[in-house]
Amino acid sequence: MQAAPCERPFFVRKHFWQSFKALMKLITILFLGLLLSFAAGCGSDAASKENGGDEGSPSPDLGPPTVEFLMAALSNNVLEIKRHIASGTDLEQRDPNPQGNQSTALMMAAAFGHAEVAHLLMEAGADLNAQNKDGDTALHSAAFLCHPEIVEDLLSHGADAGVSNLKGSTPPDGLRLPWPLAKGIYDLLNAVLFTPMQQPLDIDRIEKTREEMLKLFD
Question: Taking the mean position of all CA atoms in its chain, how far away is CA 40?
Answer without folding.
Answer: 22
